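Quality-control log, excerpt.
Job 1 of 2 completed; input and output follow.
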Amino acid sequence: MAVVLVASLSYGVWHAGLDPYRDLEELKTHLPKLDRESSYVASSSCRSCHPGEYHSWHRTYHRTMTQVATADNVYGAFDGSKVISHGMEYTVFSTNGQYMVRMPDPDLVMAAAQGQMNPAPGEIPQVDRRVVMATGSHHYQTYWVESPRMERLMQTLPLVYLIKDRKWIPREHAFMRPPDDKGDFITQWNHHCIRCHSTGGNPGLQPEGTAKAGMLLSEVGELGISCEACHGPGEAHIDFHRNPLNRYSRRAKGYNGDTIVNPSGLDHRRSSEVCGQCHGVYIDAGIEEERYRYDGIHYRPGEDISDYRYYIQHPANTGLDRHHTEFEKNPGFYADRWWEDGSILAGGREYTAMSVSCCYNN
């Protein structure tokens, strides 16, 4: 989405050596906004009534998928290590309790990747950026730095820290790719990672004609995958149950049609789709792609996800003519995601395979 960078390179000024992060709360102001205005209330609001479920969830990797980069959450050794990614040098270090990286200016690297500039080797200057957000906590962890020019934009640090091996590697070495793939793994969290690595994510693309047109003023209900990712926004549920008369009435008379979704009460298709919203290969259906850029995900647990997504299948798994046609039109798309026999290549795409299985469809 080149418009983001074009519209924003002149926005704001970064001063080398300036430390605007005085405490955790101030650090959070540099992340995607944590008060999504779509009835999300965050997991802390669920804790008092559902302590068992809250503590069970709190121990999961879902919760720790995306976190603020603090000493409690960062696994990487910011010890002065130098790593080369696509011929560019990155040095990770810490100072004054902050996680830092000396790197080629990520805004200019992004501009070059999008064809907006054609710098000579070594022409992009090295800058120091603070790591403000971490993704992953199971096998490895990757990190994000803010853009001083673009408000709330999270730029990739193209390195991965292998937790078990205690080792840094270039991000391009962490993903299985076709041998001739020359992808540079330059990305922005606000574009696609926000979809599944946060709850209630909204890229927040600002429309033309507004003061910050083209910028991504992203919002999330919560970082990581929390209660509302699977149960839906909880505001109405909490408002209803905050009144003790409503709670007693529900127990005494029974209550049909709750104010929130419990996936265990859905049929096998709808409950599986709750997982499939992240664990599948899909493209947005109809106008959803355009709506998503400006207003985030519209699907809610319990709805028919096919109203919002089209799930793509390898023809080897279905034999359907339309899947063969799709494959022939874009074989590169499939090469990035499936082996030639139709086995899924990328991890975390279980719904794609399950949805064409006999167990699911019979």
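Job 2 of 2 completed; input and output follow.
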Amino acid sequence: WLGNPLVPRGSALSSGVRQVTGGFALAVWLVGAAMAVPRLRHPGPMSSSDRTYPWIALGLYSILSGMIATVGRSGFGLEQATESRYTTFAIPLVVAAVALGAELFGVCRRESSRIRRACATTGYGMTALLLALHGHAVATSLPFMRDLGFRLRGAKTAVLLHRLVIDEPHLRWLFPSPPEMLGEFARIKSHGQLNYDAMELSEFREGCAKAGAPDPANGWLDAWARRGDHVAFGGWVRLGDKGIPGTNVILTWAGSDSILHPLALALPGGPRPDVAELLHDERFAKCGFTGTASLEDVPTGRVRLDAWTVDTDDWSVHQLANARPFLTRPGSAPPAARPTG
């Protein structure tokens, strides 16, 4: 638990290194605290409590938090100790160990005792090791942090557009039961304690009517195929008016009455190096999207598939290029998809 901030889950180092690292951090802090406490009562370089007391208190906070987590969570297994949410409770010990160790071992080094100078050298070595492990932990955690950030942004987008399409996989990142969560959101919002506005279907259709003709600058719907009673689709998305990657794609169908019906929500994040090369902008290296939509509520026969993206900052709607006719009648095949754009 104490070593997890420096050897997080996903690290190439073994779990044994995590335990040794936690022991190192605890040892540095214990030695520093043991040397600091007597000095708080005597004059000398470390007589001022404001130079040591904060680090002792900060380390105690982590140690006591670890004890509480051990008592309350040990029944879930050892891997529970590697949950990233505990990092904010465990990392203060590492910070306190580095600060307290550097402060106190620096004082020891200035004294004449060879033993104390040896302790100072050892302390500097252990502190350097903790800092090196910290660099390793940052390098290990960044990809996971980016992935988590992407998933949470996707969950937020799914919440803002849930009145158009319910995307349960992304909503489950916030709560296991999306209907229960959305109902609770509405209840809390009615009391003025939650500030968010989900897009209404009428607003979406109005935005689509104002969007104008499909614009290749907004991206392309460049793959589609029926798989049983579902349609798989894909492409890439961009907010053409701002020149930035889009955050969502809504697939719609329309029959002979031309009324748009949202069918599925897709979130970009798939690799599209070709688009990044075409636009000379690495921000679009992961602007691709894929999705699957059920055709259960779509009438049989010929309909039109359109793809749209919503700018969740100003709620404007933009249409992607390459809208296609689609046959939903069982046994008929949709037009073969060809790479476009």
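Post-run check on job 2. The radius of gyration is 29 Å.
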